[in-house]
Amino acid sequence: MMQERFSGSFTQQEPIPEAGIEAAIAVLRHGRLHRYNTAPGETAQTVLLEQEFAALTGAKYALAVASGGYAMGCALRALQVRPGEPVLTNAFTLAPVPGAIAAAGGRPVFIETTQDLTLDFDHMAQMARSTGARILMLSHMRGHLCDMEALSALCAALGVTIVEDCAHTMGASWRGTASGRYGRIGCYSMQTYKHINSGEGGFLISDDAELMARAVLLSGSYMLYAKHTAAPPPQVFEAIRLDVPNVSGRMDNLRAAILRPQLLELSQRVARWAALYGALETGLQDTLGLRLIPRPDEEVFVGSSFQFQLNGWSKPRIGAFLTRTMARGVELKWFGADAPVAFTSRYDHWRYADPAPLPQTDRILSGLIDMRVPLTFCVEDCQQIARIIRAEVLAVGQGPEPEAAALPVIQ
Ligand SMILES: *Cc1c(COP(=O)(O)O)cnc(C)c1O
């Protein structure tokens, strides 16, 4: 029998909604792309977007910026991170997270990962005490939320302020509270592969007036901060406006116009992702050698990516598995590779941060496989992908030890 092969693209996102295309063309026609360039009586697209995102998350204040990485760096600067200050963060995360800490002058201190891909609380508490860190940049990597109530209580006891990296959790929640609302500041990304797409873009949300005033000034508001409506009142700015540097990273009206109609679609997208994720999970249930990541009942997650573990598999065996799935059109990523590949890298590759070895994380990442789930896939696509993965896990997992081979090239 001919083996089935998947023919879809793992990197193809959906087009921008027609309403977004029309709104973008309107901005291009009038030419006022800069957020502070408005006609008399006009409210900028960027300002409207901020109002709408604050309303969606229930935050008092929202600020739209140039990228998710910028949002995180801005949050840390607003918290006045000092040069060389330790900032706790997940060892299992993406390169822009330690990058934002380093760019703000901080020193990333990596925390171990649990088997279920969340922050290890015991290690976090230990490192908070030993380094005296006062900030945790909590990365909800690949959308896996830790117990946010337990973490909030622990951080309160340790005197640690939480900043949430919600790049993979826009639209997610823990016990009914939106991801990004447990921390002092929540940061989001609107980069193409996230949950709404303007190519590049980011948000910060917070209820803290002084922090948000700092963030707005940092983002490059000049003395035009009063044009922000999802921001604290002008008197909060007046006290600090000459003390905060301008580190330009604004959102523009073109990208805001593209994003506003997508925000309206977010809850539908979350539901569509749940169906795709569910099809993958069902198709891979009870596959010998493969561990699925359990998802707690308290968590509403966004299934925009899918992870599983091949625990105890040797590197050549995982390499053979990746080569064979790739040959059948299924593009998987691996967190155990010796060298970084495309978007995928690991804490010990970030040499500038001088990472201490983390044996538990090493063990977990060595068997961790990751897959994008774009919304251009349908449920049948995910069922087919699951069949292919399952067949190859069984074939390679039960087969003889393969020889070491080059890994497939992925983008
Ligand atoms: C994408 C991403 C970011 C940063 O987003 P950019 O908008 O690309 O700067 C931060 N954290 C995680 C986990 C991400 O995947």
Ends distance: 30 Å
What is the second-level CATH architecture of the largest domain?
3-Layer(aba) Sandwich
Order of strands, main sheet, comes to 1-9-8-5-4-2-3
What is the H level of CATH, i.e. the homologous superfamily of the largest domain? Answer: Type I PLP-dependent aspartate aminotransferase-like (Major domain)
CATH C-level label of the largest domain = Alpha Beta
Helical fraction equals 25-40%
How many H/I helical runs?
A: 12
Count all strands and give the number.
14
Task: Report strand %.
Answer: 5-15%
**Radius of gyration, taken over Cα atoms and rounded to an integer in Å:** 22 Å
Describe the structure.
- This protein starts with 17 loop residues before the first helix and ends in a 13-residue tail after the last helix.
- The model has no long low-confidence stretch (mean pLDDT 96).
- By secondary structure, the chain is α/β, with parallel strands linked by helices.
- The site of pyridoxal-5'-phosphate has 15 residues, from α3 and α4.
Topology, element by element:
Elements: H1 18-30, H2 45-57, E1 61-65, H3 68-78, E2 86-90, H4 96-103, E3 107-111, H5 121-131, E4 135-139, H6 148-158, E5 161-165, E6 173-174, E7 177-178, E8 185-189, E9 202-206, H7 209-220, H8 234-238, H9 253-284, E10 291-292, E11 299-300, E12 305-309, H10 315-327, E13 333-334, H11 359-366, E14 368-372, H12 379-398
In brief:
By secondary structure, this protein is an alpha/beta fold. It is built from twelve helices and 14 strands. The model has no long low-confidence stretch (mean pLDDT 96).
